[in-house]
Amino acid sequence: MVRTFAKVLLVNGRGEILFLRRSDTDENRPGGWDFPGGNAEPGEDAYETVIRETQEEAGLQLHDPQLIFAATRTGGYGVGCWLLFLAYVPDDVTITLSPEHSSFEWFTPEAALAASGYVPHQELLQFVIDNRVLDAATPKTVTCRALVVNEAGELLLLRRSPTDPLHAGTWDLPGGRAEPDERLAETLARETLEECGLKIDTPALVFATSNPRLAGGGTGTWLFYQTYVPKDTPIHLSFEHDRYQWVPVADFPQYTDYDVLLRMHTFAMAYRLYNAARIRSSNTYPHTT
Question: Where are the strands (E) in 173-212, listed by range?
Fold first, then answer.
């Protein structure tokens, strides 16, 4: 099972980030600095997680935090997808700590990088600094893709139509970019319904990553969700695609040369994340239109 961890960068008007110091009795990194946030509960969208955790840990009610960074790591917990959100708060905001933390401070991104010896923090803070992520004018896109797997261990691919202005004739996974103020699960549900007629009920997040965008600047975050569907389920394509095909998961690299897709696939194969049997037993079947 892949776990989801959702954290938030709370930024004040001076461009400073809120750091909470873990209590001395914390079983994980006692006394260390951390961002508000925590583990997603079963069936909880990462937006809901970060809103709930921020209320519990800092006494703040967030509204529409923005996803700005993601990474997939392994540890004693197994595989985990770490999602970092951004929210702006007033300079005079009141922080109310829970027993989980003993104190708080506001740091510039550079000072936060120096203060935290935690490698995952250093990675994400360096990304934030290098790509000017805290600047509201920096473009930040979020793309959700569906790994639709059947009982034969095959993956659903869609071929883009000849009229596609950028990627005509290429094979891709169902999915697309999030719209403003759209939650992650809503993006995936909307895109899979539009592109192949599948209504996905309970997708499982299995891989997440962020990259600087080579074209147009800014950053791009990619989330990959897996779900099970019987192979005989009807697929109804939109005008965006002209063909679909089921391919063995191991053969996916033969159909794409896109870096982020290949990195996802390499990780999924290495940690055996393509698992139709597990998903089939835990998820309801997607409906079709």
Answer: 175-177, 198-199, 204-212
